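Reopening this ticket.

The earlier resolution said the output was attached, but the attachment link was broken on my side. Pasting everything inline this time so it's all in one place.
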Amino acid sequence: MTTKPLPLLHTRDLPTTGAQLRSATTAVNALIAGLGPPSSATDLVQLRQVLAPADYEHAGPQETPSLEDAFSEHDTFFGVARAHGSADLFLRALLVAEIDTAFDLARTASSLSPAERSMLVGGGSALLSHGRSRRAGGQLIRPPDACTAPPADERTAQLRWQSGHRLFFAHLQAITVTCR
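Inline output:
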C-alpha cells in the first residue's frame, strides 16, 4: 500500500448509466492498451503506476460539511481522499485497490481459499469487461495462487486492515454503480 491517498469519486461523479460506464472502461482500456496481462510482481507495479490517479480535484468538506467532517478522520487513517473527476477515476481506483490487495495477499499468510482470493480482487476486471474490452472475460488482477508467506506481525496486520478497507470502500462504489 502506498502513502498516497486513494481517490474515491464523490457520489455525484460516479457513473450512473451504462454509457458512462462504457466510456470509463474505454478510457481505462486505452490507458493500459500497451501493457500485456500482468504475469509478475513487476508487471503489477507497472500497471499500478499507470492506473494510479495522479491528478484529481479534491472534494472538500465545504460541499457536505456534516458528512465530510464525520468521515475525514477515517479517510485520513485508511488513506482515501474524496475526489471529483471523470468516471474512469472510479474504475482506476478500484483496480489500484485490487492490486494493493493482491500484493498484501502475496506478502502475508491468508486463510482465504484460492477461489475466495480470486473473488476478492475480481470486481474491477468484471467492470472493465463491461465495455466489451479486449480483456472481456479475463481477470486483469489475479491474486497469488498460494499464500505461503509468514503470518503477519502487528505492523503488517495494520497494513492489511487499511488495505482491506480501501478495497471495501472501492467495492461499495462498484456496488452502487452496478445497482444503478
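Reporter confirms the inline version is readable. The radius of gyration is 16 Å. The helical segments are 18-31, 41-51, 65-78, 88-107, 114-120, 123-128, 154-179.
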